[in-house]
Amino acid sequence: MQVTAKDRELLAILSENARMPTATIARRLGLSRTTVQARIERLEREGVIAGYGVRLSETYEKGLVKAHMLITIAPRALSRVTPELAAIREIRTLHSVSGSFDLIAVVAASSINELDLLIDRIGEIDGVEKTLSSIILSTRIDR
């Protein structure tokens, strides 16, 4: 995959607002509309752009209680635990990590009570040995 500097600029603009009209993007990049459309199609075809999604409003996001959950799993349980974690919609991201824990999940719930139930639910999954949660108080940088 060949990604040029203009492609990276285009990706940054699409990350801000994937619904921005092609003509507006073209003006911001100093390119023609057809060139921008061709670049977007190429980036999609080559798999650089895998899809488009919904970005939730800051107001909605601020109403959620988010936490980092560090998870220790039993030996050889990763292939069994991961699909169960993937089925939990409140888990935003799941990372394999080095160190004393095996996974870090970023979770979001509508209230402290819901977060508490979610933590219990994850802890009850067969193969999960231990969890440690830290509630996110504020986000200082979000790119």
Describe the 3D structure:
InterPro entries: AsnC-type_HTH_dom, Dimeric_a/b-barrel, Tscrpt_reg_AsnC-like, Tscrpt_reg_AsnC/Lrp_C, WH-like_DNA-bd_sf, WH_DNA-bd_sf. There is one protein chain. With 143 residues, the protein is an alpha+beta fold. The protein has two domains: 5-46, Arc Repressor Mutant, subunit A; 58-136, Alpha-Beta Plaits, CATH 3.30.70. Helices cover 41% and strands 21% of the residues. The chain has six helices and four strands, in the order ααααβαββαβ. The protein has a four-stranded antiparallel sheet. Strand 2 (91-96) and strand 3 (103-109) form a beta hairpin. Helix 2 crosses helix 3. The longest helix is centred in the N-terminal third of the chain and has 13 residues, at 33-45. The protein is elongated, with a radius of gyration of 20 Å. The mean pLDDT is 95.
Q: What layout of secondary structure does this protein have?
A:
Blueprint (H helix, E strand, L loop, with lengths): L4 H12 L5 H8 L3 H13 L12 H5 L2 E9 L4 H9 L4 E6 L6 E7 L2 H12 L4 E8 L8
Antiparallel strand pairs: 1-3, 1-4, 2-3
Helix pairs in contact: 2-3
GO molecular function: sequence-specific DNA binding
Organism: Sinorhizobium alkalisoli
Protein name: AsnC family transcriptional regulator
